[in-house]
Specification:
The protein is an alpha/beta fold. It has helices spanning about 10-25, 65-80, 95-100, 115, 135-145, 160-170, 185-190, 195, 220-225, 235-255, 355-360, 365-370, 375-390, 400-420, and strands at about 40, 60-65, 85-90, 110, 125, 145-150, 175-180, 200-210, 260-265, 280-285, 290-295, 305-310, 315-320, 320-325, 340-345, 345-350, 420-425.
């Protein structure tokens, strides 16, 4: 099977990359609504820590050299003891391959991923091809005895996702789904407060980027390959490619899976798209909590976030930054007295610092040091994968979790395509 280029190239990928990095590094951060900007967000320096060896080296191969593949290579280059032995893509344009080789100059390039799987030096494989091409690559990698990190969604098609997840669950090697927030320190840190603060009763999430999924390319055939997200046959749309991460966070925090989803998709998308460029979804959970989600390619206002609300608190998470907003009658946790406070519009948020315990042990004050935004969720997710490879411990984003998130996201896409409500029976979420 040929390995098609990964999901980001040309104008679409470059727009996304500039927007993503600008969001993380900008001088101001959009809050919860119009004019709600975080004040004094950068009053404290960012915590920087020198990496120390995490354990024995884990030699990797990256399959798919588009934007996501190159982001993966950049993250691996920063991780301790994560050498890249091979990079793979069926698209062999010299300029295209060189963009990846510049990041990992010592890696061997293979136009056939099976050649990389045959390399004894390759221990772990990261699959960064378009979602509809994951299945055979993952099955072959597991059959070859490799550890596998498969980007989320596992597949555009539910049956393909089931085949991948079953193989991952049965493998003697480590299999991890690329639900990167499961490995993101800010999300795991925020989750730890739910024991004291109580279960959320409602959630809201969004993803907004003004961009196009139509990619520029030298030939119509190449453009079609790169623009795979636009087409019904190869895409699970905004819910599948983007919303899956937000859906998974809320299901994780609620400790339950949704029972139904109602979706609304723009019936007249631009750029010749066959899937909606703007969607809204409502996910219903057994406890009575709902998640309201919206995503669009038409506007970038207010970026991306997850917001969870309970009787005593609300928590807002924006990738590497997070805040808690406490009700006046909520219990005193103690640490919040010393934490930094940020003004978000009419609200005051208590800044969450994921490495607070480590900072305190080093004699530092988390409120003054602030959150470390230099290590992306992808970086932390890959770090968790490599730690699992070294220790043999099952990762949080295991095969079953990856499959369940995939089913929810795909059915949310189907609901948006038909502007309808779809029930999610338990058997649909079972491998």
């Amino acid at each position: 099977m040929d390995v098609k280029p990964m999901r980001g190239e040309a104008s679409m990928s470059d727009t996304y990359e500039m927007d993503r990095r600008g969001f993380l590094a900008g001088a101001a951060l959009a809050g919860l609504g119009v004019g709600m900007l975080v004040e004094e967000l950068h009053a404290a320096p960012l915590f920087q820590e020198n990496e120390t060896p995490a354990g024995p080296p884990v030699s990797c191969a990256v399959i798919g050299l588009g934007l996501r593949g190159r982001e993966t290579l950049a993250a691996l280059a920063k991780l301790p003891n994560a050498p890249v032995a091979a990079i793979c893509d069926s698209y062999t344009s010299e300029a295209y391959v060189k963009r990846a080789q510049t990041i990992v100059p010592n890696a061997a390039f293979k136009s056939d991923y099976k050649e990389a799987l045959a390399m004894p030096s390759v221990q772990a494989v990261i699959v960064d091809t378009p979602s509809h091409l994951h299945r055979q690559i993952v099955l072959d990698a597991l059959q070859a005895g490799k550890h596998v990190y498969c980007e989320a969604p596992l597949a555009s098609d539910i049956e393909d996702a089931r085949a991948i997840a079953r193989a991952g669950a049965a493998a003697k090697t480590i299999f991890m789904a690329g639900l990167q927030y499961r490995g993101n320190k800010m999300h795991t840190h925020a989750f730890s407060f739910l024991t004291d603060m109580g279960k959320p009763v409602a959630a809201r999430a969004q993803w907004r980027r003004k961009m196009s999924w139509r990619a520029a390319a030298p030939t119509p055939e190449r453009e079609h390959e790169l623009s795979w997200r636009m087409f019904k046959a190869t895409s699970s749309g905004l819910p599948g490619e983007v919303g899956i991460h937000e859906f998974d966070v809320v299901s994780w925090y609620l400790r339950e899976l949704p029972t139904a989803v109602t979706g609304f998709g723009n019936p007249n998308p631009k750029d010749g798209m066959e899937v909606p460029d703007t969607v809204q979804c409502i996910l219903e959970y057994p406890s009575g909590a709902n998640l309201a989600f919206d995503a669009t390619l038409a506007n970038s206002f207010d970026g991306s976030y997850e917001l969870l609300m309970g009787p005593a608190f609300a928590m807002l998470i924006r990738d590497q930054r997070g805040w808690m907003f406490k009700e006046t009658d909520s219990p005193l946790l103690g640490w919040e007295v010393y934490a930094r406070k940020d003004k978000l519009g009419d609200e005051t948020g208590i800044a969450l610092v994921a490495d607070a315990t480590k900072l305190i042990s080093q004699g530092k004050e988390p409120g003054k040091v602030g959150a470390d935004v230099s290590k992306s969720a992808l970086y932390q997710s890959l770090s968790a994968f490599l730690d699992a490879v070294r220790t043999g411990k099952k990762p949080a984003a295991n095969a079953e979790v990856g499959f369940q998130a995939n089913v929810v996201a795909r059915l949310a896409h189907d609901a948006c395509m038909t502007r309808s409500r779809i029930e999610i029976p338990k058997e649909a979420l079972t491998l």
